[in-house]
Amino acid sequence: MPPATILISGGLDSTVLLHYVAKRLHRAPLYSLSFNYAQRHVREPEMAAWQSEHVAEVKEHHIIDLTMFEEVIGGASSLVAGGERVPSLNELKETEHDQPPTYVPNRNMILLSLAAAFAESRDCDTVYYGAQAQDMYGYWDCTSEFIERMNRVLSLNRRTPVKVAAPFVNKSKAEEISLGHDLGVDFAHTWSCYRGKNVPCGECPTCVERRTAFEKAGFIDPLARNSWDETS
């Protein structure tokens, strides 16, 4: 099979996807691609680098500097430096669950466009993307419809069209965790907390989602070994 590109943030979804693409889909070589877009949780790219180093099928891992994103969105997202504080999940209004303050305007379209250029230049026919069916909140650019429309645009390429594949778009995070355990994923080297501290805050939307998913899957989260209530 031809080489493939995989977007890896260092979080649960993309980490399990990396192992799945390598070990179940047997794609190789793999080019793993991460972005520094001035996100508060800067430990994510560190985890992406660690995971990429420990998957033999990964030929290269690249971290692309997009820190100018802070200026582009001008404080419009709490996930990016310069924005408001990251809220706790219980602070979100019901009307915010379909697009919470942690949404980064047009981020995924931009990252996938760059990933498609990266993939095309390396003769990769596929960009793997870790979108999943979020249980508690969601974003429009993590949906099947979004991926289908991105692929319609990319199919206009007259020489080397690249496809975006999201194998987990209909999977829950608990299902991903179970699959990750089967694949031997070291979840101690993943990161989810949006607040960017040294230990998970246990309160932000992704911390609550992660904790709930591990409980549903019947496993202990190695990052919760000290306490989800501990802060730094």
Indicate the overall shape. Answer: globular
Gap from first CA to last CA = 46 Å
Question: Any low-confidence stretches, pLDDT <50, length ≥5?
Answer: 227-232
Helix percentage range? 25-40%
Describe the structure.
It contains 7 helices and 5 strands; from the N terminus they run βαβαβααβαβαα. The protein is α/β, with parallel strands linked by helices and 232 residues long. The protein has a single domain, classed as Rossmann fold (3-Layer(aba) Sandwich), CATH 3.40.50. It has a 5-stranded parallel sheet with strand order 3-2-1-4-5, with helices on both faces. The longest helix is centred in the middle third of the chain and has 15 residues, at 107-121. Residues 227-232 have low confidence and may be disordered.
Please describe the topology of this protein.
Elements lengths: L3 E4 L4 H12 L6 E7 L6 H11 L4 E8 L3 H5 L33 H15 L4 E3 L15 H11 L8 E3 L7 H11 L21 H13 L15
Parallel strand pairs: 1-2, 1-4, 2-3, 4-5
List its traits:
single chain, 232 residues, alpha/beta, Rossmann fold, 7 helices, 5 strands, 34% helix, disordered C terminus
